[in-house]
Design goal:
The protein is of the alpha+beta class. The chain has one domain: Ribbon (CD59). The chain contains two helices and seven strands. The protein has a five-stranded antiparallel sheet, with no helix packed on it. Strands 1-3 form a two-stranded antiparallel sheet. A hairpin with a 2-residue loop joins strand 4 and strand 5. The chain starts with a helix and ends with a helix.
Length: about 140
């Protein structure tokens, strides 16, 4: 049982340091970038960008004067910074601009409407729970 735990922990660490891609597109110039996202339509391999170390995938929903658009990118453009390793969404309001910024750290994760956690972390948590349950009973 301990060897399974060590194996899962090692795989989890490998997953954390691996690189991933993010979609890079703007809804104003490419309608397939808006929600609902259409990765099989006008999105091509040129709309995917390798995230540099420390970068996070970002999906920004911007609303101003009754119009809304979606931008998908890495956090490199600096307008809305994400905390490295943090997944989730935050809402910002500045005058007429309302922005919902979602940050994530897995391959092409900024395609989804709601940012999802890495399945490996869920598996690791469940495995640890099973290990402790097995050990105590």
């Amino acid at each position: 049982m301990q060897s399974i735990f060590i194996l899962l922990l090692t795989l989890g660490c490998i997953s954390i340091v691996s690189t991933y891609q993010c979609y890079q597109c703007h809804g104003e110039s490419n309608g397939d970038c808006n929600d609902p996202f259409n990765a099989t339509g006008g999105i091509t391999d040129y709309d995917k960008e390798e995230a540099s170390p420390g970068e996070i995938c970002v999906k920004a929903k911007l609303k101003t004067n009754g119009r809304s658009t979606i931008e998908r990118d890495t956090n490199s453009y600096g307008l809305f910074n994400c905390v490295p390793g943090e997944n989730g969404c935050k809402k910002y309001i500045n005058g007429d601009l309302t922005a919902t910024i979602c940050c994530c750290t897995s391959d092409l994760c900024n395609a989804v409407s709601i940012i999802q956690q890495k399945p490996l972390i869920v598996l690791l948590t469940m495995s640890i729970s099973v290990m402790f349950t097995y050990r105590w009973y």
